[in-house]
Design the sequence.
Protein backbone atom coordinates (compact mmCIF):
# COMPACT_ATOMS: atom_id res chain seq x y z
CA UNK A 1 0.00 0.00 0.00
CA UNK A 2 1.48 3.35 -1.03
CA UNK A 3 1.74 6.07 1.56
CA UNK A 4 0.07 9.24 0.35
CA UNK A 5 2.03 12.45 0.71
CA UNK A 6 0.66 15.92 1.36
CA UNK A 7 -0.52 17.96 -1.61
CA UNK A 8 1.92 20.73 -2.35
CA UNK A 9 5.00 18.93 -1.07
CA UNK A 10 6.09 15.91 -3.08
CA UNK A 11 2.92 15.74 -5.13
CA UNK A 12 4.04 18.71 -7.19
CA UNK A 13 6.74 16.39 -8.56
CA UNK A 14 4.08 13.89 -9.62
CA UNK A 15 4.90 11.37 -6.91
CA UNK A 16 2.34 9.11 -5.28
CA UNK A 17 4.49 8.02 -2.35
CA UNK A 18 6.55 9.99 0.13
CA UNK A 19 10.30 10.12 -0.45
CA UNK A 20 12.06 9.54 2.85
CA UNK A 21 15.79 10.12 3.05
CA UNK A 22 17.64 8.05 5.65
CA UNK A 23 21.04 9.48 6.62
CA UNK A 24 23.16 6.93 8.46
CA UNK A 25 26.92 6.53 8.24
CA UNK A 26 26.54 2.79 8.83
CA UNK A 27 25.57 1.29 5.45
CA UNK A 28 23.97 -1.82 6.93
CA UNK A 29 21.91 0.02 9.55
CA UNK A 30 20.79 2.73 7.13
CA UNK A 31 19.99 0.10 4.54
CA UNK A 32 17.81 -1.84 6.97
CA UNK A 33 15.90 1.31 7.94
CA UNK A 34 15.41 2.20 4.26
CA UNK A 35 14.21 -1.34 3.47
CA UNK A 36 11.72 -1.22 6.34
CA UNK A 37 10.34 2.07 5.05
CA UNK A 38 10.14 0.72 1.50
CA UNK A 39 8.21 -2.30 2.79
CA UNK A 40 5.80 0.14 4.46
CA UNK A 41 5.12 1.83 1.12
CA UNK A 42 7.54 4.75 1.18
CA UNK A 43 10.11 5.57 -1.47
CA UNK A 44 13.17 5.25 0.77
CA UNK A 45 16.60 6.61 -0.10
CA UNK A 46 19.69 5.90 1.96
CA UNK A 47 22.83 8.01 2.05
CA UNK A 48 25.83 7.93 4.35
CA UNK A 49 26.99 11.55 4.56
CA UNK A 50 25.58 14.96 5.46
CA UNK A 51 26.89 16.40 2.18
CA UNK A 52 25.00 13.79 0.18
CA UNK A 53 21.86 14.48 2.24
CA UNK A 54 22.12 18.19 1.52
CA UNK A 55 22.43 17.47 -2.20
CA UNK A 56 19.22 15.40 -2.12
CA UNK A 57 17.39 18.14 -0.21
CA UNK A 58 18.62 20.88 -2.53
CA UNK A 59 17.43 18.89 -5.53
CA UNK A 60 13.96 18.88 -3.98
CA UNK A 61 13.73 15.13 -3.88
CA UNK A 62 12.89 14.64 -0.19
CA UNK A 63 9.58 14.74 1.69
CA UNK A 64 10.90 13.69 5.11
CA UNK A 65 14.31 13.05 6.58
CA UNK A 66 15.62 10.61 9.19
CA UNK A 67 19.09 11.49 10.47
CA UNK A 68 21.25 9.17 12.56
CA UNK A 69 22.98 11.93 14.39
CA UNK A 70 26.16 10.23 15.58
CA UNK A 71 26.16 12.61 18.50
CA UNK A 72 29.84 12.07 19.24
CA UNK A 73 30.67 13.89 15.97
CA UNK A 74 29.67 17.30 14.71
CA UNK A 75 28.30 16.02 11.38
CA UNK A 76 24.79 15.28 12.61
CA UNK A 77 24.56 18.55 14.52
CA UNK A 78 25.82 20.49 11.51
CA UNK A 79 23.34 18.80 9.20
CA UNK A 80 20.39 19.42 11.55
CA UNK A 81 21.38 23.06 11.88
CA UNK A 82 21.79 23.57 8.12
CA UNK A 83 18.48 21.86 7.39
CA UNK A 84 16.56 23.93 9.93
CA UNK A 85 17.90 27.11 8.34
CA UNK A 86 17.68 26.16 4.67
CA UNK A 87 14.55 23.96 4.74
CA UNK A 88 12.46 25.03 7.76
CA UNK A 89 9.39 23.12 6.53
CA UNK A 90 11.18 19.83 5.85
CA UNK A 91 9.99 17.24 8.39
CA UNK A 92 13.06 15.85 10.17
CA UNK A 93 13.44 13.09 12.75
CA UNK A 94 16.66 12.27 14.55
CA UNK A 95 17.71 8.67 15.17
CA UNK A 96 20.01 8.13 18.14
CA UNK A 97 21.21 5.47 20.53
CA UNK A 98 21.48 8.07 23.33
CA UNK A 99 18.52 7.90 25.70
CA UNK A 100 19.04 11.08 27.69
CA UNK A 101 22.00 13.11 26.59
CA UNK A 102 22.40 16.91 26.48
CA UNK A 103 23.18 16.68 22.76
CA UNK A 104 19.78 15.10 22.10
CA UNK A 105 18.07 18.16 23.55
CA UNK A 106 20.30 20.41 21.42
CA UNK A 107 19.33 18.55 18.27
CA UNK A 108 15.65 18.66 19.25
CA UNK A 109 15.83 22.46 19.33
CA UNK A 110 17.40 22.69 15.86
CA UNK A 111 14.28 22.11 13.79
CA UNK A 112 13.74 18.41 14.24
CA UNK A 113 10.22 17.27 14.96
CA UNK A 114 10.97 13.88 16.50
CA UNK A 115 13.81 12.12 18.28
CA UNK A 116 13.66 8.34 17.81
CA UNK A 117 15.71 6.09 20.02
CA UNK A 118 17.47 2.94 18.88
CA UNK A 119 16.94 0.11 18.68
CA UNK A 120 14.06 0.89 16.36
CA UNK A 121 10.93 -1.18 16.03
CA UNK A 122 9.58 -1.26 12.49
CA UNK A 123 6.00 -0.42 13.48
CA UNK A 124 7.17 2.58 15.53
CA UNK A 125 9.37 3.73 12.66
CA UNK A 126 6.41 3.67 10.28
CA UNK A 127 4.24 5.59 12.76
CA UNK A 128 6.99 8.17 13.25
CA UNK A 129 7.33 8.83 9.52
CA UNK A 130 3.57 9.09 9.16
CA UNK A 131 3.55 11.58 12.07
CA UNK A 132 6.26 13.63 10.36
CA UNK A 133 4.23 13.84 7.16
CA UNK A 134 0.97 14.48 9.01
CA UNK A 135 2.72 17.25 10.94
CA UNK A 136 3.60 18.89 7.65
CA UNK A 137 0.02 18.51 6.48
CA UNK A 138 -1.29 20.31 9.56
CA UNK A 139 1.14 23.25 9.32
Sequence:
Amino acid sequence: MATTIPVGYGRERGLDTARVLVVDSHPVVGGVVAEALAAAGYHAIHCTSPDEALRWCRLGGVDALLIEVGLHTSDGRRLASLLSEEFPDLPVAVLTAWLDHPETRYIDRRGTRLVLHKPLQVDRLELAVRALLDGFRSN
